[in-house]
C-alpha cells in the first residue's frame, strides 16, 4: 500500500522524539565539559616526572641519564645534567636534572620515554585539557610543572603503579640486604685481617682494602 | 477579568486606539504601517523560534540534544545565529550580475511577506480582505519562482543554475496540485475570499465546527495540499533545489552573510504562509473545533494550528530522505494530479448528494461520508497498485563488486 512505509518511518521518529524525554538511552550524548566518561586505565596523553615523598626536588627519581632525550622521536625533551649529586632512593649518590623541559605542542604521546627509562622516573599522565592562551611559555613545561608525586601515579594507573612499587621495594630491599651483607663481610674480613696482620705482615691488609673498593 | 470577546479582539482594539490618536490625514498610512509592521515582526519572530525548535526537534528525532549552549535550553540560539550572519563577510562573485544578485533575496522576502496580507490570523485580523484572496495568494506565491531564478541565474555558477532549474521545475509542477487541491474548498464555499471561507467554517452544528477537514474530500484535500505545500516551499523530502549532497546549496550557494539569512528567512516564511493558507482552507482558520472552546481567543487558535503544522513539517523532515528528480516529477504528475482531480469529483458528489437522499436522518450523513470517502479511497488504491507495479522493493545484490 502506498504510504505505509512513510507512516512506519513517522512512527519511528515520533517514538525517538517523545521517548527522548522519558528514556535516557535515547539520548546517548555525554555533555562533555559538565559530564565526563571515566578514562580507561591504559589511556595516556602526556608524560610527567615522578617523585617520592613530599619534596619534588629531593625526591625526583630522574637521574638525568638522558636516554629519554635521545630516544624521543619528535625530540621534545630537553635535559641539562647537574654538576653536583644527590642521593637516590637507595642512598647512592646520583646526578639529577638541573633542567628538564618537555614541549607539549611537540610531544606525540608515544610513551617511548616511559619504556626506555631504567629508573621508573617518567610515566604517562591522563590529563588531556592542555590548551593554553600562551603559546610559548604555556606549552613548554618545566621540571616543576612536570613533577608529580607517586601517590598521584597510584590514583591514575593503579595496576601499573602497584607493579612498579613492588619492583622498587624489592630493589630497595635487595640493596639494603646487599649493603648489610657487604658490611658484615667487611667486618668479618677486617677482624680476620687484624688476626693475620698480627702473623704475616701487611700483605693481607692490601687485599682487604681491595675487597672494600669493589663490593661483591 | 476581561471578557472572552475583549481578549479575542485585544489587538484589533489596540490598533484602533493607536490610529485614533493620530491626525485624520495620517490615519490611513499609520493603519497600514501598524498592520504591516505587526505581520513582519510577528512572523520574523516566529521564524527565529522555529529555527531553534526545528534544530532541537530534529536532534531529538536523531537521538541527540539539539543546540543547548546559548541561554537556558539554547533558546537564545537565534540571537547568536543572527549576530553571526550579520558579522559575516558579504561575498559577491566577480562574474555575478551584481544588481540582480543583490535584488534576488530582497525580492524573495518581499514577495513572501506580501502573501500574508490576505491571511486571517484571527477574527477581524486580516490586513486586506480581498474578494479574490485565494487567487491573490497563489499569484504572489508564484512570484517567488522569479526571485529564485534571479538568484540562480545571477550567481553565474553551475550549481546555482542547476538548483534554480530544479526549483522552477518543482515549483511549477507542484503549483498545479496545490491549486487543484484548494479548488474543492472554493467550490464548496462559493467564494475566493479567505475571510468568508473561514466564516463559513466557523459555524457549528451540534457543537462541531464545519471545518472542511471533517469531510472526506476535505481530509484528502488537506493531505494533498500539505504534500504539495512541502514541495512548493522546498522543504525536505522535496528539498532538491538545495540538495546539499548533490549541488551543495542550490540557488543560494553564492550568497553569504545576511543575504543567505534572508533566503533562509524567506523559506520559512513561505512555509508559514502556505501552512496558514492550509489552516484557512481546511482547518477552519481561527475558529475553534468545538463550540464549547469558543472562549479561547481566535488568534491563539490560529497560531496553535500553525505551530502544529510546523511541527508536522519538522517531523516529516526528520523522517524522510530526499527524493530523486524523476521520482519527484512522477509523484507530481502521476499521483498528485489525478488524486486532486478525484477529490474535486468527490467534493462535487458531497455537494449534490444530500444526506436525505441516501438514508434516514442520522444514518444518511454517515453513508454520504463513507460513499464520498470510497470515491477517493478506491482510485487511491488502484493508483498505488499501478504505480507500484514493477517496483519491487528488495535487498540489492551486487554481482561484481563484492
Structure description:
The complex is a heterodimer of chains A (216) and B (402). Chain A has 216 residues and is of the alpha+beta class. Chain A has two domains: 47-156, Alpha-Beta Plaits (2-Layer Sandwich); 166-213. Helices cover 42% and strands 13% of the residues of chain A. The longest helix of chain A has 43 residues, at 158-200. By secondary structure, chain B is mainly α. Helix content of chain B is 67%, strand content 1%. Chain B has a two-stranded antiparallel ribbon with strand order 1-2. In chain B, α2 (10-20) packs antiparallel against α3 and α11 (257-281) packs across α12 (298-319). The termini of chain B are far apart. The interface between A and B is medium-sized, with 18 and 20 residues.
What tags apply to this protein structure?
heterodimer, A: alpha+beta, Alpha-Beta Plaits, three-stranded mixed β-sheet, three-stranded antiparallel β-sheet, 13% strand, B: 402 residues, mainly alpha, 67% helix, globular
CATH class of the largest domain in chain A: Alpha Beta
Helix content of chain B: 55-70%
Structural class of chain A: alpha+beta
Number of strands of chain A: 8
Q: Largest beta sheet of chain B, briefly? A: 2 strands, antiparallel
Q: Please report the distance between the alpha carbons of the first and last residues of chain A.
A: 93 Å
Task: Return residue spans of chain B where pLDDT drops below 50 for at least 5 consecutive residues.
Answer: none
CATH topology of the largest domain in chain A: Alpha-Beta Plaits
Instruction: Write down the overall geometry of chain A.
Output: elongated
The number of distinct β-strands of chain B equals 2
